[in-house]
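On to our target:
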Amino acid sequence: MKTTTVSRNLGLWLIGLGSCSLVQATELVYTPINPSFGGNPLNGTWLLNNAQAQNDYDDPDLKNRTSVAGTSALERFTSQLQSRLLGQLLDNISTGNTGSLSTDAFIVNVVDDSGALTIEVTDRATGEISEIQVNGLAP
């Protein structure tokens, strides 16, 4: 009886050993699908947007910084409008038109005298006058 169990165990052991040589294993690599748990580094934008959506912290210094250094919407609109009108005034020189622009801070006079362009800027606060002359422009 002992020889039967020993031979049976020996046979099972040899079969097991023989079958192990046929099995091949590779390294397991975990690739997460949910970007919250890692994964593709291109999901960084999704993670940042998700974190910002959950952020309910308000910076108490933000209002102080914008009120000191920032400008109001009316001031920005006025500045943009003045820039647009000054740009249009300077664009009209190519068609031979001259003109002037008057604001709270300055007065701009543009005169085109047969290719000699003169731009006169007067500061209303100090009365200082700056004159810019450009020669050789073809109207």
